[in-house]
Amino acid sequence: MTFTNRNRVQVLAGTALALLVALAGGCSRSDEPVVGQFKGLDITGVPYGKDFKLTDHNNQERTLADFKGKVVMLYFGFVQCPDVCPTALTRAVETKQLLGADGERLQVIFVTVDPERDTAPILKAYMDAFDPSFLALSTDAQHTRETADSFKAYYKKVPTGSSYTMDHSALSYLFDPSGNLRVAMRHEQTAKDYAHDIALLLKTP
Q1: Considering the entire predicted model, what is its pTM?
Q2: In the chain, which ranges are continuous DSSP H helix?
Q3: How many domains does the chain divide into?
Q4: 27 belongs to an annotated ligand binding site
Q5: What is the CATH number of the domain that holds 126?
Q6: Which residues form the signal peptide (predicted)?
Q7: How far is CA 53 from the centre of its chain?
Q8: 106-146: pLDDT as tens digits
Q9: Are the beta carbons of 33 and 204 closer than 8 angstroms?
């Protein structure tokens, strides 16, 4: 997928939507700990992105509960994406390095929006190319759509000659160690921004 002007508009639209939700009352509630100022969009308390039930590249079913005690970074993409997804995963590697020892408490999760081509062996090899601790999750086409919709994540198959590519949004979602969706990170933000917000979430009780 080439990150075209159209993609940028979609990312900005998703960002604007998250911001509007936050301004409408999705910011931190008084009964939740306030640990600092996020670099990303604070979407604490939004009514979406509550959980998922998907299969990892080791054929094990996964939900958010499996990662309690860790910050989860969730990203929707696909293996044949030529630029945006590799950039996001490379940044995730750098983010983990910046966290030092706390990097062990970060779980990066890549959800494929192209289950037709992204088989478990392909996903495993793709994750191993960046960091063996990263997990890729998948499901069938219908459940993929339902999962993406539950996170307000956009994707669409785009024909390219005899094949196709996938147009998709590029936000990364951060969950605190209790499994609550807290922050939406923009694609153009730096690894330092990501590490900053993850460090804050790791201080959440």
Answers
A1: 0.82
A2: 5-21, 84-98, 120-130, 141-150, 191-202
A3: 1
A4: no
A5: 3.40.30.10
A6: 1-24
A7: 15
A8: 999 999 999 999 999 999 999 999 999 999 999 999 999 99
A9: yes
